[in-house]
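User: I'm writing a tutorial on reading structure tokens. Could you give me a worked example: one chain, its sequence, then its tokens, then a sentence or two explaining what the tokens reveal?
Assistant: Sure. Here is the example chain.
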Amino acid sequence: MSPSFKNITSRDIVKVLHKLNYILDRQSGSHAIYYESHSKKRVVVPLHGKTVLKLKTLNGILNDMGISFDEFISILKG
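And here are its predicted structure tokens:
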């Protein structure tokens, strides 16, 4: 079963960020801020355990990362 928009968690986001060479800069409460070392892109990830991310939040994070949902899924699986 392939992941859909309905079951992506912050753990999945963090896995993909590490594969894309993003580095954890700091954490403030339940939000982690990651930076890409070359382009200085900033991505804020809400760390709420196994809670599924809302569609609008997921789209915002993917937009900040500069990738599509299909690219995200292929990186997550690969």
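What the tokens reveal: The longest strand covers residues 22-28. The chain has one domain: 5-77.
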